Amino acid sequence: MHGAVxxxxxxxxxxxxxxxxxxATFLPPIRRGDLLKVQSYGVEIVCIIxxxxxxxxxxxxxxxxxxxxxxxxxIGSSSMGALRAAELDTLGMEGVGVIYxxxxxxxxxxxxxxxLVFDPExxxxxxxxxxxxxxxxxxxxxxxxxxxxxxxxxxxTAQSIFYPERTxxxxxxxxxLPVRDRLLTFIAESGVDxxxxxxxxxxxxxxxxxxxx
Length: 213
Hints:
The chain is α/β, with parallel strands linked by helices. 45% of the residues lie in helices and 11% in strands.
């Protein structure tokens, strides 16, 4: 392998990712120990988007720092990548996207914000990550679909639900029926998939760096 490797799963389908960054090699969500093999690949760029949190050991800080010390560019975005970039950007890791910025400025603090469950065969998301719920509710409030008080209540409700069971349908049950229907219609038409948007931004950054070489 040469050029770049990207660890990607539920944030964006691999097929779509290849149309954005055709010269990258796409691998499954990252686990602890995966980066130990990367230096033998001869790549210049490693992009971490998705990774395992609670189902398996998460990628370690030392693994990333080892790549940085060897001169490999490491980019993080969207999910596990955003979390690690916010922790390691002062040591050379590059963060991309809104979610990275929200972790970096302290708006988000918990791994739980980006956690979700997904089908291990095709990476299809089976729950809604809290960060997407937040961004969607912020937008719904801005568009006056719900009030500030309703948005706050919905976010607190989402936080109280174990991440594999978080869905928009479940948290919306606390609302009166007319408001619930209005919100669910808004989500279906205009819901914010921030993890997807940040994954695309990271792949565009990787493509830009590869094109410079």
